[in-house]
């Protein structure tokens, strides 16, 4: 199979080379040849500018004689410039990047930090976010970034409320506006980090399509993308009908094998581990980073981990052999299980065959089918009634880890599956049992499958009409969205059945489970030594119906917005926008009874009752989904105004912009959001100053308010009020008492473009600062009780009762408005557009965008902790510097593009003190010592090109990660939010338009 895949890579390389020769050595994207611009000629690739226009290009609002909706503001009059910096990607830039999902193109922008996607959450079984593509601006999380479609909300594809970009109609996107700043006053909750707004082409005419294929240098992640869109205008150009459909499939990557062998033969994984020496004052670092770490707690097919037989391992056939410990380690052969010469829990080198991390998927497989339609009718000039439908299905799959490792097992020497040599050794040592750990390679690997289906419908009317002598714009719509999510986990064991199955005995000459009650309920014995379990044992441990979760989310919205200029000031027309919105969010999630609890599940008939299992649930090795339901309603109203202050050649043009929004949440009451800012087109040709400050909000989401409950028994929980240990029940639940997070968001900077004395050059620099208070964060049971006992957080006192005369003692573990986030930095963009460079035909465009994060401080709000600054921590989402540079050359026949992506070197954590042996201070909890606190940055280069076969057909090629740069090693496997984990990727495709 690998030879076939390598052959496909070779063929694709040859095809790429042939196309490159046909283009005379070129590489992606002739702006005008690839996608017709029916409403927006003269667009540009990427630009950070005022919300009304891209930098360094013609203003799209001026390119057509109509108003343009400015993302980040509700004012829709011509010539309006909002004070909030906005990055704009038009259809040409999106096409040039030649990605199978528009999400990837946008996520590459420097201001987007911590976005998810198919390479993130691949290690997860239970998160529900596998394969979910969602944006995070400024690193504050996807839940604090508002994603819109044509300025309208989209139903969430996860209980956190974030939508899935894979469900959007991608071929009809004519531009994407990324508002780098708070916009809650204009759009409501969640717009703390900013807004990503997808604008569709509602007047598209003709037929266009795109066919693309791709594969990595390792012969995996085969990709197929087929897109088709059509549009027509009927009834004297009054009826506009458009539609699109697309199919995409990404094969995904991984998982790999046990040990350190990644999928496709990738060799960059070194099983790097952060080892805690548990020594703080011997002059050496407490933490050390070591490659090729070997767990001493389990082996691939089994390892005796403590006692006099420690170090006996078992091969696939079950034959015992002496395990090879790394670091020349020698087993202590006592109850501690320590290995002399090794670290606690780890050796270095030796037999790594049982390591499980390499089994993780590097990229989730994804299949998406998306259909979109819109019908609009102009019932009067500049007035339209319309209906849209977006139906999409996205299926993903991932392998969280290799095997289902189980350390710390106790095996009886009398177990009939114990090899005779080991039984004899037990007798010689005078023991009746031994400690045992296994990767459970014989049980195979678990697989997680998600299926998200979106049904979204909008009916609305918008247009322009005169009122008292001036034109007013209006936009009124109602929306209903439903998202249904199915999660199924295959090939995963039931932990308590496993415990019973490995405890085998002989009865009437047959090997059976030792526990009579377990036998009566169908227990089948498991030979845990080696790799040959019986099919009956596998069926018992891992029933066909594995963990499952079914979620239904709905969103209903009714919105109306009005905008106009009712009167003039001394400097020009005063523009006003106002409106209101009602929104209702609801979700219901149901899970299987083995995970959620026998009495709580509607699927009991499919999951037979088993007295071995816990009636309250939590029986699976992983994937113990829970049931939950909840909903809330939102009523809000806003007003916004733009007042011109200056308008002359000597003073320039200046205006002040302000907005206020009042919002009433059914769960948390009333909250205000506002913004105040302004712009000044100075008398200096091309120089604009801008600034805005705002109060933004994020309301608690459905998951935080109504989390599906999880119950855990705490047998010896300490009660500080009575100074005794008690039996308590921990209930992990939502908190309907949560309040909205409150943020203060400020940006200030300048933009230089359109100068007569420096044509084609643009530059913008903006400073930003976000401070979020009352951040919703979860507390553990001990923290909840302790914070109440010490009087630090009185609101936790109602979350527990440890002296309950009327029932069991309990602690409700839930989220509280407790933490804070404080971040600031700079956004910089420069671009230059040179027509006929050096007398050559065509246009040369140079562009670079950069974000510098000066600080990103999170304060948990807990006593005894210090704020943590993660700016420059490259195992997180916020490197010190991140930039994207693009150089493109375009003619009427071909185009070529070179793109560079880079982020700076960083650290493992700002709390660490790096030192070497003999020179370390005492290590403390807040300032621990470490031998290596460096994580390198990365530089990636992408190239591509197009060739216009005819006026309607364009062929293109793209190579990402040209130099096949491997990700940096990490003690946490890898950070796919920053590093490319796939390696060099090739894509070929054809676009057409008629």
From TrEMBL:
Keywords: Cell outer membrane, Membrane, Receptor, Signal, TonB box, Transmembrane, Transmembrane beta strand, Transport. InterPro entries: Beta-barrel_TonB, Beta-barrel_TonB_sf, Plug_dom, Plug_dom_sf, TonB-dep_rcpt-like. Residues 36-49 have a biased composition (Polar residues). Residues 1-33 form the signal peptide. Residues 82-195 form the TonB-dependent receptor plug domain. Pfam families: Plug, TonB_dep_Rec_b-barrel. Residues 451-962 form the TonB-dependent receptor-like beta-barrel domain. Residues 36-63 are annotated as: Disordered. PROSITE patterns: TONB_DEPENDENT_REC_3. It is a multi-pass membrane protein. Its main location: membrane. It is found in: Cell outer membrane. Belongs to the TonB-dependent receptor family. This is Outer membrane receptor protein involved in Fe transport. It comes from Sphingomonas abaci.
């Amino acid at each position: 199979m690998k030879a076939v895949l390598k052959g496909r890579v070779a063929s694709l390389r040859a095809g790429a080379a042939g196309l490159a020769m046909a283009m005379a050595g070129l590489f992606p994207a002739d702006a005008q040849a690839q996608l017709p611009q029916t409403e927006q000629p003269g667009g540009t690739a990427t630009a950070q500018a005022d919300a009304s226009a891209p930098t360094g290009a013609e203003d799209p609002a001026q390119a057509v004689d109509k108003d343009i909706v400015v993302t980040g503001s509700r004012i829709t009059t011509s010539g309006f410039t909002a004070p909030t910096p906005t990055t704009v990607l038009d259809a040409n830039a999106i096409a040039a990047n030649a990605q199978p999902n528009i999400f990837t193109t946008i996520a590459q922008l420097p201001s987007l930090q911590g976005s998810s996607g198919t390479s993130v959450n691949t290690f997860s079984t239970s998160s529900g976010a596998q394969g979910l593509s969602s944006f995070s601006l400024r690193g504050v999380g996807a839940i604090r970034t508002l994603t819109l479609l044509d300025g309208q909300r989209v139903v969430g594809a996860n209980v956190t409320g974030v939508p899935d970009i894979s469900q959007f109609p991608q071929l009809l996107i004519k531009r994407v506006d990324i508002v780098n700043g708070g916009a809650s006053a204009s759009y409501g909750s969640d717009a703390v980090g900013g807004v990503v707004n997808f604008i569709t082409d509602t007047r598209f005419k003709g037929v266009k399509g795109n066919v693309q294929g791709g594969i990595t240098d390792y012969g995996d992640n085969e990709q197929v993308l087929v897109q088709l869109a059509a549009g027509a205008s009927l009834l004297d150009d009054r009826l506009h009908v458009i539609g699109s459909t697309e199919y995409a499939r990404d094969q995904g990557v991984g998982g790999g094998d046990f040990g350190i062998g990644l999928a496709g033969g990738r060799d960059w994984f070194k099983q790097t581990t952060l080892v805690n020496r548990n020594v703080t004052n011997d002059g050496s670092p407490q933490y050390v980073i070591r490659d090729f770490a070997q767990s001493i707690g389990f082996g691939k097919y089994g390892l005796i981990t403590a006692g006099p037989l420690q170090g006996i391992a078992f091969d696939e056939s079950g034959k015992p052999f002496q395990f090879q410990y790394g670091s020349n380690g020698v087993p202590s052969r006592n109850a501690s299980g320590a290995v002399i010469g090794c670290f606690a829990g780890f050796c270095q080198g030796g037999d790594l065959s049982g390591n499980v991390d390499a089994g993780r998927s590097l990229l989730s497989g994804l299949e998406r089918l998306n259909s979109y339609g819109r019908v609009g009718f102009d019932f009067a000039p500049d007035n339209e009634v319309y209906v849209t439908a977006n139906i999409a299905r996205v299926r993903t799959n991932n392998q969280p880890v290799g095997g289902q490792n189980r350390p710390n097992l106790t095996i009886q020497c009398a177990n009939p599956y114990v090899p005779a040599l080991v039984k004899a050794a037990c007798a010689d040592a005078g023991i009746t049992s031994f400690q045992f750990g296994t990767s459970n390679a014989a049980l195979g690997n678990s697989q997680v499958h998600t299926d998200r289906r979106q049904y979204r419908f909008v009916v609305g009317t918008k247009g322009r009409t005169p009122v008292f002598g001036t034109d007013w714009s209006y936009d009124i719509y109602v929306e209903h969205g439903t998202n249904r999510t199915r999660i199924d986990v295959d090939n995963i064991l039931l932990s308590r059945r496993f415990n019973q199955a490995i405890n085998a005995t002989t009865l009437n000459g047959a090997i059976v489970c030792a526990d009579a009650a377990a036998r009566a309920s169908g227990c089948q014995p498991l030979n845990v030594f080696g790799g040959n379990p019986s099919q009956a044992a596998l069926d018992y441990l891992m029933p066909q119906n594995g963990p499952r979760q079914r979620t239904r989310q709905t969103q209903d919205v009714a919105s109306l917005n009005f905008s106009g200029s009712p009167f003039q000031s001394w400097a020009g027309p005063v523009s006003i926008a106002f409106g209101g919105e009602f929104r209702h969010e609801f979700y219901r999630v149901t899970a299987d009874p083995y995970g959620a609890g026998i009495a709580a599940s509607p699927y009991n008939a499919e999951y037979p009752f088993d007295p071995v299992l816990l009636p309250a649930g939590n029986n699976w090795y992983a994937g113990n989904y829970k049931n939950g339901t909840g909903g809330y309603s939102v009523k809000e109203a806003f007003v916004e105004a733009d007042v011109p202050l200056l308008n002359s050649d000597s003073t320039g043009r200046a205006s002040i912009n302000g907005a206020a929004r009042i919002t009433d949440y059914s769960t948390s009451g009333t909250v205000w959001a506002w913004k105040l800012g302004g712009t000044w087109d100075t008398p200096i040709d091309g120089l604009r100053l801008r600034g805005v400050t705002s109060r933004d909000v994020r309301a608690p989401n459905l998951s935080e308010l109504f989390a599906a409950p999880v119950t855990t028994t705490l047998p010896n929980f300490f009660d500080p009020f009575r100074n005794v240990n008690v039996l308590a029940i921990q209930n992990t639940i939502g908190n309907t008492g949560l309040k909205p997070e409150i943020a203060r968001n400020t940006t200030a900077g300048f933009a230089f473009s359109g100068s007569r004395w420096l044509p084609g050059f643009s530059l913008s620099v903006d400073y930003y600062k976000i401070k979020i208070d009352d951040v919703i964060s979860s507390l553990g049971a001990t923290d909840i009780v302790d914070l109440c006992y010490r009087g630090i957080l009185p609101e936790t006192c109602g979350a527990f009762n440890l002296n309950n005369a009327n029932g069991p003692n309990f602690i409700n573990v839930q989220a509280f408005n407790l933490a804070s986030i404080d971040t600031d930095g700079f956004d910089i963009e420069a671009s230059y557009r040179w027509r006929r460079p050096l007398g050559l035909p065509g246009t040369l465009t140079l562009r670079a965008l950069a974000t510098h994060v000066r600080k990103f401080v999170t304060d948990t709000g807990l006593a005894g902790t210090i704020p943590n600054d993660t700016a420059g921590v490259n195992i997180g989402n916020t490197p010190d510097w991140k930039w994207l540079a693009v150089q493109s050359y375009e003619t009427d026949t071909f185009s070529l593009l070179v793109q560079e992506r880079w982020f700076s070197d960083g650290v493992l954590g700002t709390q660490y003190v790096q030192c070497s042996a003999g020179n370390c201070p005492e290590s403390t909890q807040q300032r621990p010592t470490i031998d290596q606190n460096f994580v390198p940055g990365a530089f990636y280069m992408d190239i591509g090109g197009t060739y216009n076969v005819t006026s309607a057909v364009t062929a293109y090629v793209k190579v990402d990660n040209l130099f096949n740069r491997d990700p940096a090693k990490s003690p946490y496997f890898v950070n796919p939010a920053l590093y490319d984990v796939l390696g060099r990727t090739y894509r070929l495709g054809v676009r057409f338009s008629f």
